[in-house]
Amino acid sequence: MITTEVTFDELAALMKQAAGITVDPEELKDAAESPFDSFGLDSLGLLGIVGELENRYGVSLPPDSERCKTPREFLNLVNSTLTAGA
Predict the structure, then answer these.
(1) Secondary structure (3-state) at 66
(2) pLDDT at 4
(3) End-to-end alpha carbon distance in the chain
(4) Signed CA dihedral, 31, 37, 38, 41: sign only
(5) How far apart are CA 80 and CA 51, in angstroms?
(6) What is the number of alpha carbons within 13 Å of residue 72 lying toward its C-beta?
(7) 38: Cβ–Cβ under 8 A, 6 or more apart, which residues?
(8) What are phi and psi of 35, to 5 degrees?
(9) How many Cα atoms sit within 13 Å of 28 on the Cβ side?
(10) Series of mean pLDDT values for 10-residue runs along the chain (86 residues)
C-alpha cells in the first residue's frame, strides 16, 4: 500500500516533464477546478503524465485517468488508486 499522495507541486512538475507546460503549483492549486486545457494541457499530455505516474509508483491507473477534466479530479482519482494499492 502506498501512503504518499501526488500533490499539486508534483502534478505541476509532471506537466513540465511530460508535456513541456510550465505551471506554477500554487496557480494549479488555486484553479484546481479549471479544465486542463486552460493550462494548455491536452489529453495526450495527460496520458504522458499517467504513464509517468504508473512507472514511478508501479501501479496501473484506471483506464479513464486520462479523461479527467480538472487537476482536482485527476489528483483525487490518482490518490485514491495509490492509497487503495490497486
Answers:
(1) helix
(2) 75
(3) 8
(4) positive
(5) 17
(6) 9
(7) 31
(8) -65, 150
(9) 26
(10) 79 95 96 96 94 93 92 96 77
